[in-house]
Amino acid sequence: MNFFKRAWLNVWAKKGRSVLLILVSSAILMFVLAGLLIRSAAVKATDQAKADVGATVTLSANRQAAFKKMQNSSTTSKSSRPKMTLTPVKLSDATKISQLSNVKSTNVTSSTTVNAKSYDVVSTSSGMGSSGGGPGGMKGKTSSGDTQIDGVTATSLTTDFSNSQSKITKGRGITAADKNTNHVVIEKNLASQNDLSVGDTVTVKKTTGKKATVKLKVVGIYRASSTSSSNAGPMSTDPSNTMYTSYTLANSLKGSKYAGTADSVTFTVSNPAKVSSVKAAGKKLINTSSYSLSTDDASYQTVKASMATIEGFANKIVWLVAIAGTIILALIVILMIRERRFEIGVLLSLGEARWKIVAQFFTEMLMVIVVAVAIAGAGGKFVGDQLGAQLVEQSTTNQTVSSSVSGQAGGQPGGGMKGGNGGPGMQQTTNTKKAADTNLDIQVSAVNLAELGGFGLAITFLSIMIASGGILRLEPKKVLIS
Amino acid sequence: MLKTTGLGYWYQDETNPLFQDIDLTFEDGQSYAILGHSGTGKTTFLSLVAGLDKPKAGDIWLGERSLKQIGLTNYRRHNVSIVFQAYNLFTYMSPLNNLLTAMAITGAEHAGDKYFAKRTLNALGIGEDLVERNVQHLSGGQQQRVAIARAMACDAPLVVADEPTGNLDEDNTKEVIDQFQQLAHQQNKCVIIVTHEPDVAARCDHQYRLENKQFVKLA
Ligand SMILES: Nc1ncnc2c1ncn2[C@@H]1O[C@H](COP(=O)(O)OP(=O)(O)OP(=O)(O)O)[C@@H](O)[C@H]1O
Ligand SMILES: [Mg+2]
């Protein structure tokens, strides 16, 4: 391969020009790599989000239908005050839905309140609590107790715990094995205020029926989420007064007719993309006039949307830079060919095939590109890091704003994790947190380098092809007769 | 042996060709000089003989085959060596690599033989101290000798040169012409030189003048 040797002699003899070409190519390839890195990081983050964020389908009473019924009855019988009756969710329905494919786990939620007997509740003493009448005012109006009981299948399945906003600090959380037990997980502040530790027993008084007292055994202590305390609103009691138990215990505290029911049941879907198909399949299994299935994949959608934005942008970078790079390199090669027309003329006069002359130029550029890929590989991570951080910042702010607006407008059906007080605002806060946590993990992998090499090769090939028109048209006679 | 039959060429105006109906024969082992006023078409004629362009009329024959049959690229590669007034060499190479490259492209008998290439250069006065130096650092006369050495190292039976001494002083001119004569007489090549210098022409075996669209043999 004689053209190969010529290419090497040329690149070596014209070191200055070669270095310049390497610098230009490195700059082009560095931007290509930055785009590739951001793109692959976005893909990875989206995959991660699928696994992490998890989307849920929640089975709860059909509030809309109940509200309609209430309105209808109020028009027919004007005498009695209309009452909205919500049918508790039947666990038998929940079992059927939990057996659908793609349902990873099931969390039964049943909330109630009790009154403290053997301990003192934590009174809200933070700055915000001082305004207004405080929690005391609310207590009289409703029949609720001072202690919130959140019955769950397992604490780890609740949003607060899976988001790590609440954390078990001592002992353990509630698990499925705690079903039909009197085990309870209490908040750190409540525990320290009452000198309670794991293994102790607390006594509470029911708010319903004969207001009997019930003994509960502390199996774990948790630290409440900071967001729930700041977002709980004026009506709620201090979050430290929330205890987690098995949903069976919550049901029995509510009264015997609540056995085998729940406020809501949340199904975690293994693949967030399958949420709507699970919802559709679940709808066939329940009486939709009494119950409704709602989906919450907002977190996933937020992450997905922001990552899609980044991915789209990264794709544009890759292609724009690749195209611009090809044009720049092609122009350089065209100039180079003009400058080297005597050399080409001598080659042609020696009877060298034109394609071999093109091959020589291609080989020369390839030698340059190989070095440039190495340089870009070293520098691309830096550029990618900078760009990635900027992009995440920008797109998550955009996404959060748009998602909270839509969340407010759409309004989410109640019956979330937090008993009655989890409105849309609360749900949104969680999403914002999640999205902001999403970082782009920029790493130069062998695949990235291979891709970069591919782009380098393609750019070189295309630019030489564009410029080679000059070589193929060049008349040796015109060059030599000048 | 190179022969032209009814050769004619024009650029734009077919009714006013540079030359027409040219029937010439160039023998192996002989040197030919072509003289003529500027603009008469000497270079154009040489480009046809060198296979750099196609005739507008007539044919050129190498032995029994026409250039058309041989194919111009093929012809340039195997049958003709070209020496120009300037820009003969690969500027990014040493004299040695210039020869090796040309030998490789043309598939010469001694292709790849470094020592043969060196001996050829040495014989033309390019000493050991110069063979590995970049050709851009050689004088005009030295560069021209490298171009002639290249023609010698390749096996082509025909050597054409356009004003090969145009840039050279008297001493260098004399030396270069001596070497062309060697090519013809010692290597049995057919050498055709275009020149406007009567002294150079006089040292060749045969002289032609291009005037009035015809080649006139000088006595
Ligand atoms: N590509 C071209 N297109 C049109 N006319 C051309 C072209 N090349 C040369 N000519 C014309 O053809 C004529 C012959 O040119 P050529 O170069 O063969 O002359 P020459 O005998 O070599 O002259 P000189 O002694 O000055 O080198 C000139 O009049 C020139 O202007
Ligand atoms: Mg001329």
UniProtKB/TrEMBL annotation, chain A:
One Pfam family, short name: FtsX
Extent of Low complexity compositional bias: 398-407
Biased composition range(s): Gly residues: 129-139, 408-425
Region (Disordered) location: 123-145, 398-432
InterPro entries given in the database record: ABC3_permease_C (IPR003838), Macrolide_Exporter_MacB (IPR050250)
Membrane-traversing stretches: 317-337, 357-378, 452-472
ABC3 transporter permease C-terminal domain sequence ranges: 317-476
Keywords tagged on the record: Cell membrane, Membrane, Transmembrane, Transmembrane helix
Topology of this chain in the membrane: Multi-pass membrane protein
Protein localization: Cell membrane
Primary location group: membrane
PANTHER family registered for this protein in UniProt: ABC TRANSPORTER PERMEASE PROTEIN, MEMBRANE COMPONENT OF TRANSPORTER-RELATED
Official protein name in the record: ABC transporter permease
Organism: Levilactobacillus angrenensis
From TrEMBL, chain B:
Molecular function terms, GO-annotated: ATP binding
Protein name: ABC transporter ATP-binding protein
Pfam families: ABC_tran (PF00005)
CDD domains attached to this UniProt entry: ABC_MJ0796_LolCDE_FtsE (cd03255)
Similarity comment: Belongs to the ABC transporter superfamily.
InterPro entries registered for this protein in UniProt: AAA+_ATPase, ABC_transporter-like_ATP-bd, ABC_transporter-like_CS, MacB-like_ATP-bd, P-loop_NTPase
Keywords of the record: ATP-binding, Nucleotide-binding, Transport
Source taxon at top rank: Bacteria
Domain ABC transporter: 2-218
